[in-house]
Amino acid sequence: MSIPLLEYAPLSQNHRVAGFEIPGDEQPRIYTTENLLAASDMDMLIMAAYRQVFNEQQMLSSHRQRFLESQLRVGQITVRDFIRGLFLCDSFRRLTYDSNNNYRFVEICIQRILGRNVYSDREKLAWSIVLATKGLQGLIDDLINTEEYLSNFGYNTVPYQRRRILPQRAQGELPFARMARYGEDYRDKLPLPSRVIRPIPTGMFYEFERFTFSDFMNRADWTTSLGLVGATVGMALLLMLFYGANNLIGG
């Protein structure tokens, strides 16, 4: 018996009602199979689906799902099925699911599937429970089967970020495509830049560190330095004595 979805209340009505603003350059372009006029339009729709699921930072030829693309082109599957297949492919699992905790992964899926940000931590918790009990496929299926998805995108439209530009605000929300695909906990596990952990060969100053005389005096190995100075001076005296003796013998 599956656990019912935890109830949560929306914190804003912006994504739930139709807007009256006039579409402009800031509004997202809608890609749907209902108004395809040429073969190139299908190519643009497929690329828009990849951008929505993977974001431009992860759009590589090795991540393409050519079998799903061919099915979409001949009408065997809908855009909704194509989006579902991209979320369940191995590339998305490795790049996004494996590198996040459940809460961050749920947030990413809501942004890219429903086209909006999460309402609250309670909504994150609700869908995290679905992910923990039903797995990745169960979460994607439940999100795509929601009334919110079907009423906004249906079967033929690529999801997009809804109501990003609001007329009562001077600046719109940050596009989801510009957000990192992993959370802070995963980011902190990444190796530090080489200039922080790798000193220069002398061992006295780090790379790009500013030179100061006080640090030089404190860090210098004076024992070794005095030994080198003494050896240099002794060698110079020996050379002077040697050349002096030769001049006396020659004279």
Structure in a nutshell:
The protein has 251 residues and is mainly α. The chain is 51% helix and 0% strand.
Write structural notes for this entry.
- Helix content is 51%, strand content 0%.
- The protein is mainly alpha-helical.
- The N and C termini lie far apart (113 Å).
Largest beta-sheet details = none
Principal-axes shape call: elongated
Total helical segments: 11
Helix/sheet category: mainly alpha
How many strand segments? 0
CATH class of the largest domain, anyone?
Mainly Alpha
In N-to-C order, the SSE pattern is HHHHHHHHHHH
What is the name of the CATH architecture of the largest domain? Orthogonal Bundle
CATH structural fold name of the largest domain: serine acetyltransferase, domain 1
Cα gyration radius (Å): 32 Å
CATH superfamily of the largest domain: Phycobilisome linker domain
Q: Would you spell out the secondary-structure blueprint of this structure?
A:
Blueprint: H1 39-54, H2 66-73, H3 79-87, H4 90-97, H5 102-114, H6 121-144, H7 147-152, H8 184-187, H9 194-197, H10 213-219, H11 222-250
Helix pairs in contact: 5-6
List keywords for this structure.
2 domains; mainly alpha; 11 helices; serine acetyltransferase, domain 1; 251 residues; 51% helix; single chain; elongated
